[in-house]
Each structure stands twice: as structure tokens, then as C-alpha cells.
Amino acid sequence: MRETFDPAPPKGARIAECLSQMGCTNDSAAALERAAGSELDAAREGVLELPDAFKLHFGGELAHVRVAWRLTGGLGPVVVVLGGISAGRYVTGDDPKGWWSDIVGPGAPLDTRHCRILGLDFLGGSGQTTGPRVGQGLFPSVSAYDQAELLRRVQDHLGLGSLAAIVGSSYGGMVALAFAERWPERVAQVVAISAADRAHPMATAWRSVQRAMVRYALSKNDGPEGLRLARALAMATYRSPEEFSARFDGEAQRIDGRFQFPVESYLLSRGDAYAASYLPEAFLCLSESIDLHRVDAGNIRVPTTLVAVREDQLVPLTDMRALRDRLAGPVQFHEISSLYGHDAFLKEAAALRAVFEQALPPAKSAA
To answer: Domain locations in the chain?
Structure first.
């Protein structure tokens, strides 16, 4: 395996060690502590290139697979953090903005003062990991097991040993469950937020229509417009009816000769933003991967924490409870209520802080 970029590791551990070895005044010790704290935000990142063809769970193989990863923080055990299909290796931080920076960081619910965070770009996505190119309509089908296998390769490449936890939300939770089923000795704990052992048929119905919209648009050489509309429809499934009722109950406005509804303007603006940053072909690949997801919960013995959202339209509470009952290992089950529905994992910092404090004591004790 070959690494294309891997900057020097952060120096926070060496700075912190100096405090116990040097005779420092209070002022100088405080200065060193501040320096060490700033180093905790330092990151290593790289792109791992696999030397051999990568065999896929659903058949076929990919040559020259590249896996982009990012390891943040200088001290503590490693926690892998994986999100929805548009999330990637930039989990926390401000430059660039991490997709979960409100939840992960120094003093945040998942506190990087006590652990290191590993993020990946998904296979088949729009990041630097191997995925479809613009105009490539037939990228192979990808499984959550394939994503888990690439995580295992990065784990070995970085010499991380057993992971303290994998925290996965939405699609990332599916990957976490797949990893736990295949390699229970490699991870001490799994936290799956709004992710079950299989996709619900109603959620598959919504996503199937979204993919049909994108395929039709691609056939007309207008993939971004298809993705814009698919994302707009998806946003209506991510959130709750209660939120939309509270936010978008205003009257329609006549714009360019027709009426436009407040909720319509919101959904299409979200679609515009998504289409500007994501490939339609990558959306097709990973949206399908969600619906192909099935793991055998009876083979998962890793201690698991499940977080279910009562208002989640995509992963119903009944599916999360059924997963809880099928898991073979120890399980903690948290039900939360959120107007944000499936997107609660992006918004509910206080609720997630309580979950992480209970579920991840190894990360806390590493301080």
C-alpha cells in the first residue's frame, strides 16, 4: 500500500510531556498548556492507495482504489466518526468547516481533548476516495461492508490497533454495524444514530423516486438539475411535519407569474446548494447503497449504543427497537424527540452529549 500524503504527526503529546519534565513557572506552564491545547486540533491526512484490485461485496472489483482519510487530535484513543452519504473525512474544525463541527471538537459533546477522530471519504462518493466520474453512469454497486473493509485497511495502515469506538449517523451508522459484524475484535464500542440493520421499504420508496429523477436528468444531460430536485424531495423526508408546520405555514407569494410556497422556496434552495457541491453519479451510488444495506444483527456482539429519533421518517422508531432486540451483544437504547427528525444528529448537541458521556467512558478516561 502506498501513501500519497501524510504530514508529520502533531506535537501535542510531546508538549504536554514537557510539563511533567521541566521546572516551569506557573506562567510558562500555562503557556505550554495553551500550546498543547492548540496542537490537539492538529490533523494528519492522506490518501491510501490499494495495491491490488478491491473486490466488492455485490460482485466485481475496482482497480487502483484510493481512500482519503483524516485523523484529528494528538492524544487519546481513536474514535471513528462517519455520517450521511454527503459527509466525509472533514468531521470537525473550521478550515474547512467540518460537517459535524458543532458536535465534535474541544469541549463539544464528542470531546477531542480526550480522543482522536478518524474520518473517511466514502467509496462511491464525491470526495477524494475512489468514486464515479462526471458522466460515468455505471459505477459498481457499493455495500456498507465495502466501506467497512476500507476502514479496516486504513486502520491497519495507520497502526491504530483496536478502535475505542465507531460513531456512525445515518449511512455511517450502517457502516459501523457492518464493521462490528465483520471484525468485533477491532472495535470496543459502536454508537449508531438513526441507523438500523436494514432500510425501511417506505424510505426505499422515497429514495427510489429520487434516483429515478437523477437518472432521467442525466439522460437529458442535466444531472445537476435532477440532483437539485431529488435533494429538495429528500429534505422533506429528513425533517418532521411539526418543524415544517412551525416554519412554513405562511401564505404563498406570487413570483414570476405564479405562486410559490414558503416551503417550496426552502426545499429548492437546499437542492441548489447540494447540487453545487455533489456529483449526481455519486448520489446514485450511495443512495442505492443505503437501500441495499442489510446486516445480521444476531452476529453483532460488540457493545452497541443505539439512538432513535421518534420523529425520524426514514428510520422509524419501530425499526430501531427491532434492531435493539436482535442484537447479540450488550445494548444501550436512547430515544430522543426532535423537530429535526432524521437530521437530529446534526442539530441535537445536548442530547448527544448525554449519549456520548454514557457510551464512551474510554474516551473520557483518557484525559
So the answer is: 43-197+298-365, 202-289
342 is catalytic: yes
Of 312, 319, 334, 338, the catalytic one is 312
Write down the catalytic residue from 86, 143, 170, 287: 170
The answer to whether residue 197 is catalytic is: no
Distance from CA of residue 294 to its chain's centroid?
18
Which residues have C-beta within 8 Å of that of residue 137, sequence separation ≥ 6? 215, 218, 281
Strand duo 43-49 + 104-105: pairing: unpaired
Q: Which CATH class is domain 202-289?
A: mainly alpha
Which member of 57, 114, 293, 342 is catalytic?
342
Instruction: Show the cell assigned to 68.
Output: 482519503
Tell me whether residue 208 is one of the annotated catalytic residues: no
Amino acid at 1: M
Per DSSP, the three-state class of 312 is: coil
Q: What fold characterizes domain 43-197+298-365?
A: Rossmann fold (3.40.50)
Give the 3-state secondary structure of residue 8. coil
Divide the 367 residues of the chain into consecutive groups of 10 and give the mean pLDDT of each group.
Answer: 42 34 40 42 88 95 96 89 96 90 90 93 96 87 98 96 96 98 97 97 98 96 96 96 93 92 94 95 97 97 97 97 97 96 93 90 46
